[in-house]
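Attaching the record inline, Q. Sequence:
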Amino acid sequence: MADGTPPPKRIDTGVPGLDDILGGGLPPHRLYLLEGAPGSGKTTVALQFLLAAAGRGERTLYVTLSETSEELHAVADSHGWSLDGIDLFELSTAEEVLGLGQEQTLLHPWEIELGETIKLITNEVERLRPIRVVFDSLSEMRLLAQDSLRYRRQVLTLKQFFAGRGITVLLVDDMTGNQGERDVHLHSLSHGVITLERLTLDFGAARRRLQIQKLRGVDFRAGFHDFAIRHGGVVVFPRLVAAGHHMPFVGDPVASGLDALDALLHGGPLRGTSTLVTGPAGCGKTNLAMQYVSAACARGERAVLYEFDERIGTLLLRSKALGMDLQPCIDAGLLHIRQIDPAEVAPGEFTWMVTSEVRENDARLIVIDSLSGYMAAMPQEAELILQMHELLSFLNQQGVVTFLINSQQSLVGSMSTPGLNISYLADTVLLLRYFEAGGRIRKALSVIKNRGGPHEDTIRELRIDQQGLRVGAVLTGFKGVLTGVPEYVGSGGPLLEDRGDAGKP
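Structure, as predicted:
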C-alpha cells in the first residue's frame, strides 16, 4: 500500500454471511465477477461492497452504464443508505453532455466507440484513485462492442489496467446480452465468480440463492446458499456444515418434571439427542413437548419454539389452561417463541435462525412444531432431508435437546407420514395413539426407540386435563395394536380417571 503497510489478506464484502462462505472475505486487489439475472440483487450487493469501504473513509467508485444516478439513489434510499461517500461515474442516455471534471458524467453510449468509453473510465479511475470499483454492467459493453472478440479484448484491457494498481474490482453482469447464459470467457478472466439466482415457486415469495463458482487460492464453502433482500441490504444464510461444530458437553438426561414420563426413558432424553414425537392430530404431541419446555425454563435453561402451524396466542392460552403458564418464562427471557410462515421463509434462513439461537443465545432446548410445516418451506424432499440431517447433527454436537413434532395422516386407522419421514434420523421416537376402552377414546404413549440408552417397551395411557399431563400404569390388555386402532380389553384398574374421583387413581 502507499503508506508502506502490508495489504490485508482479505477484505470484507459488506454482505452479512457472505464473508463466512468466502472463509473471511475476498483477497484484495483482484477482479471479480458478480453475475445474475435482472432482479436477483446484484446492484444491492455491489452497493454494500462499496459502502463497507466508504464507511472506513476509503475512496470508492461506482461506474454505471445501465442505471441512472437517480435509480441508484432510489435503491439506496429503500435500504436507508446514503451514497455521499461513493463517487458515481454515469454513462446513460441524456441530452446534455457534462465535462469529466464534474463528479457525475453523462455520455451517449451509442455516439462514442467502446475504446473511448473504456478510456473515459480509466481516466476517471486515475483521477480518483479509488480502493474499490464496481463496473455495472458488462451487458452494455457487449452492446457497444457489437463483436464478441472486440468485447473480450476490451474486458482483458480493463483487467490489465486495474492489475498492479491496488484496486479491488467487481464486474456486474446481468447476462441479458449473452442470451441469459454464463460467459465462460469472463469466468476465466475473473479471479472469482459469484452467481445470484432468483427462483419463482408455485406459491409464496420468490427464493433467492447464490453460489461461489470459483475463487482462486481460497477454500470457500461450495454449493447453494439462500439469501434474502431486506431493508438494510442482502443477508446471506450460509449452508450449514455440521462437521467441526462439536462442543464438549455432558450427555445427562433431561427431565420433564413428570416422574412417570421420565421413567419411560430411564430419566429422560439425553442432551445432544433429538426426539421425534409422532402421532395423529390432537393426541397431545405439542403438549408433551411443552412439558419439557416448561421444565427447562424452571431449571433456568433457555428454550426456543418454532411454531409453523399454531398461532402463538392459542398455544399460550392452551398451555396455561393445562397448568403451564409460559408467559413468565417469556418475560424472563428463558423462552422464545417464533411464528414461522413457511411460504415466506427459505429453509436456509430457518437453519440460520436455529443455529443463531444456539450460538448467540445459548439455547439448550429446541422444539420444531411441526415437520409438516417445515416441509412446506421447500418442495424438494431430498434436499429437505439433507438440510434436516445437517441441522440435527449441529444441534446434537452442541449438546442441545431437540423435539420434532410430526403429525401423521389420518386420525384413526393406518398411520402414515406425509412426504417426510425422519424417524431414522431421530435418536428417540415417542409414539402417541388413540385407543378405545369402555366406550371412551383415550390416548396411549409408548417409546419406539431410544439410542441414548434403555427405555420401556410398554404401552401407557396419557391423560391431559386442566392440571397438566399424567402418564398411567402399564396397559397389557390390548387388542389390534398394529392395526392403528388398538382396543383395550383388559381390566379397568390401570386406566386413568378424572382427577378428584374418589377411590380412583
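The chain has 14 helices and 20 strands. Residues 93-111, 501-505 have pLDDT under 50 and may be disordered.

More tomorrow.
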